Every structure is written in structure tokens, then in C-alpha cells.
Amino acid sequence: MYVAKPKQTQRAKAQEIARVKTKKGPTVEECVAKRDFTGAAAILEFNLKSDDAVAGTGPAKAEEKRKTLLWLAYASFHLGNYQRALDAYGQLRGVDDTPEIYLYRACCLFYLQMYKEAAKEAEKGPAGQLQNRLLFHCAHKMGDEDKLLVYHQQLTDSKEDQLSLAAIHYFRNHFQEATDIYKRLLLENRDDIALNVYVAMCYYKLDYYDVSLEIMQAYLQAFPDSVVAVNVKACNQFKLYNGAAAKDEIKTLTDRGYNIEQNDLVSHNMVVFEDGQNALRVLPQFVDALPEARLNLVVYYLKHDKLQEAYDLIKDVEPSTPQEYILKGVVHATLGQSTSSRQHIKTAQQYFQLVGSSPTECDTIPGRQCMASCFYLLKQFEDVNIYLNSIKQYLYNEDDFNWNFGISLCNTGSHQEALETLLRVQQEEYRHDYCYVSWLTRCYILNHNPSAAWDLYLKLDNSDDSFNLLQLIAHDCYKMGEFLYAAKAFDILERLDPDPEYWEGKRGACVGVFQRAVAGKATRVELEEVLSILKANNNPQVEYIVRIMKKWGAENGISV
What residues contact 300, with CB distance under 8 A and at least 6 apart? Predict the structure, then answer.
């Protein structure tokens, strides 16, 4: 028999909530001490709902709610849930009139990228170091250099103010200046191991990846589950090794139950570690928030031959870092070569030269690659070789490097080295590209290995590419005196297209083989092959040429 449950009275409800609250479990303070902000937020949300469910008013209840909201805002802020923190501070209106609340709200608005609103809210708060730091960062984000200078001059030597100054240096790509401040603070505050993370981030930006990893260890030993620290370590592993090594580091977070989808930065970096996987799903939402997201989306478009999309995304970017200058140069160069636009090519040259000749980049690998790219577009291949040869040992097995270096070497007559360099290209996609195949074919011919060049032709499936490669083989073999393969190529060309030029080329190549035979440099088999090629032709000149060849063979005891 069903018996209806009696309605719970307010008193019984209050007793039930009190009983739940008194159950042994971690306190908010204990969770915060362990950096378990998720646990702290869960407890606080429960307490807030419990307090709302219980009727009653009074100073004690209002004070309890005030503390709960303050802690909830604090925990939410540290979880990166800035909107919830802002809402919690909003609920404090009428409960807590402390003027510092305006500054706390400004912090939330700042992280929500609402910089104008953050500045207005900060100005309502009490004057002091926190207000100045907030306005300092808002001025930077809004590009107000005049106000930035004003707030900069009001910074003190306090640890917080110096950290703020170092952060601005970091955001403005002044990594050495930021490093100097962090290292000085670390000497003054040796127990503050979080400073190691900031120093490591600076060394990462300065391309000292090994040093960055070493400095990071102290913090990771103390806090192995730190998302920020693990992310920095993963980025270093990516630069030193590959995406797989970086993903292994991120796996330490997922193994602990962390959902990387909740962290914008880690989600963005995973796209990079996985070579663009999920790029179109993840990156567009971060384009205006993370500068690297725009650049990586441009890289994705370039890799997938979406040149116009890449150009549209980067055309309005005012470059301020070497990476931005380089990427704009690559986009202009690629677009210029595909559309035969001299203006795009010229713009690319200028960007590459700016990076390659800058004092900070001229002796770096990217800097020398930029100078090589500039000279490449100018077709000054001797200069290209000088720069690429200087970094060869660092990029020996890089396919892109070997492709470009091989072509440049071939253009300067270093045919043997060009062949060796092109053969180091391993990617199947590259090895099947007609541009690569044609240059490799030319290198084989210039190194007197026409049979290898012919094998490349036989492997081609595309009819247009086959025809073009036949023309290359025919003309290059003729120039190099490799007349047998020139004759074979001209023979097929003539059958595909009865152009008189192909007959003349075939006739000249066949006579060339005969001349080599007379000089003792061609075999009877080669001569017989030439005769077969000629006999298949209906041109009236064939009979005369064949008769002379046979007569010479008979006179010299060679049966053909």
C-alpha cells in the first residue's frame, strides 16, 4: 500500500541541512589549501543553496552568506570561471559594501576580455597598487600608450607591482627584460617556486627549451598536477622532439581526470601537437583571444592549400614578432607564386629580409632561413646556398629544407650534392609531387644517370605530368649528350603529338647515338634500339639514315 510522504516542515528541513553540513568532510579552507578549487566551489555552491532554502534573516545569516559568496567568487576565479565569480560578486551588492569589491569585479571583467568595462569598474574602487596594476594592464590591452606610461610610473618595487611589470614586458615580447625581473624576484623570494614557472616561460620564448625544462622541474615536483606547468613542459617537448612527446605530457593531466576541453590554452595547443587535427573546430573561437590561434589557423590553411583564407586571416595583422613577420612573408610568397603576382613576391621579400637582417634574428636558424627565402625569391641561388649550408647540420633530415636546398643547389650547378639532398626527402606526398619529380629527374640527367630519370617517368600516372616530364627528359638528355633516352622521349612525344620539332629532336638524338657508336662509346644494343625507333617512323628521311647506319655496321663487323 502506498503511503504519501508527509510534507517536510521548515524546522525539519533546517535540521536535515545542518546534519548534512556537520558530516565529516573537507572544509572550504582545506580544499583551497590543497588548490582543490573545484571541491571548494562545489561545497560553497551547496552551502549557498542550503542557506537560501532555509528561511530566516538576521546579521548572522547575512554574514554567513557574505563569506560564502566571497569564497565562491575566489574559488571560481581560480578555476577560470570568471563569469561565475563576477556573478558572485554581483550577489554581494547590498550584503557587502566593501569598495574593494569593485576591484575584484574589475579583475573578472579583465579576464573576460571586457577591458573598457574593467577599467571603469576599477576606477570606482579605492586608489592603490591593485587599482594601478589593473588600469596598467587595461591600458596595455586597449593600446593606450599614454595611459600605460602614466600607470607604469606609479608602479612600486613591491613584489606584486614588479610581477605586473614583468608580465607587460612578456606580453610585449620583451622576454629578456621579463626574465631579469623574475630572476631578481626569485633571488629575493627563494621559497616562491611559482616564479620558476614564469622564468621557464621566458626561456621558452627565448628558444632555450632545455633550460626552460630544467627550471620547471622544481615546481612540477611540488605540483605535478599544475595545468600551467604541465602545458609549458609539453610545449618544450614539442619544440625539442615532436607532437607525440608533447601529448605524453598532457596525458599526465587526463590520467588524473582533468578535462582538457575546459582549458582554452591546452585545447589550442593540442591542435598544434596533433598537427592540425580538429583545427577548424577549435581554433576559430580563439582567434581574437589567443594571438597564436590566428597564426596556427593560417598555418592550417596554408597546409591545405586554402591560400585566400590564409591571406584574409592575416592581411590586417600588424606584425610585431619574428613569427608574425615570417608567416606573413610565407603567405605573400605562396600567393605570389600561385598567382604570378610580383607585388606579393616583393612584399614577401621585404618581410623575410626584415627578419633575416635584424640583430636579434640574423644568427638564428629562422633568421638564416628568412635570408635564404629572400634570395630564393630574387633567384640569387649562390646566396641561398650560403645561408642554407650554414644551418644544414640542424635541418639535415627536414623534408622542406632538403627540397628547397636541393633545387637551389641544382640551379648553381652543384648537381651531385643537389641529387643527394633531394633524395633525403622522405614524405610520400612530396615524393609524388610533380615539382619534386621534375627536379629529381633533372638531377639524375645532369649526373649522367638517365635510366633513373626514365624510371621516374614510367612511374607517373598523370597524363599531363607524363607529357611534361617527357619534354624535360628529351631536351635535358639531348643537352647532356644522353642521346638514347633523348631519342626514346622524342619518339613517344612524336607519337602523342606529330609536331615536326619532335621528329627533328628524335632524328638528332638517333644520329647522336650513331656518332657515339662510331666513337666506340655506344653499344650494339643501343644502336639496335635506335634503329627500331627509326623504323617505326614513316618520315622519308628514315630510310637514308638507317642505310648509313647499317652500312657502317657491316663495314665494322657489327650486325644490326
Answer: 276, 279, 280, 283
Per-residue pLDDT for 133 more than 60? Answer: yes
Residue 41 lies inside a defined structural domain of this protein: no
In angstroms, the Cα distances linking 274 to 244, 258, 271 are 8, 19, 5
Instruction: Compute the distance between CA of residue 290 and CA of residue 294 in angstroms, rounded to an integer.
Output: 7
Neighbours of 188 (CB within 10 A): 11
CA–CA separation, 32 vs 34, rounded Å? 5
Give, as one character, the DSSP assignment of residue 286: G
Residue 492 included in any domain: no
Q: How many distinct structural domains can be found in the chain?
A: 1
d(CA 89, CA 125): 14
pTM: 0.77
- Is 439 exposed, middle or buried, given 0-12, 13-18 or 19+ CB atoms closer than 10 A? buried
Nearest to 144 by CA among 135, 153, 156, 132: 135
Q: In whole angstroms, what is the distance from residue 175 CA to residue 120 CA?
A: 30
Least Cα distance to 163 among 141, 130, 120, 138 occurs for: 130
Q: Which amino acid is it at 397?
A: N
28-87 pLDDT tens trace: 888 888 888 889 999 998 988 886 655 556 677 788 888 999 999 999 999 889 999 999
CATH for 173 = 1.25.40.10
Task: Identify the domain containing residue 197 by its residue range.
Answer: 167-275
Rg, the chain, Cα only:
36
C-alpha cell at 358: 635584424
- The Cα–Cα gap between 67 and 76 comes to 14
Instruction: Report the distance separating Cα 399 and Cα 386, nearest Å.
Output: 19
Query: Does residue 426 sit within a domain?
Result: no
In a domain, 204, yes or no: yes
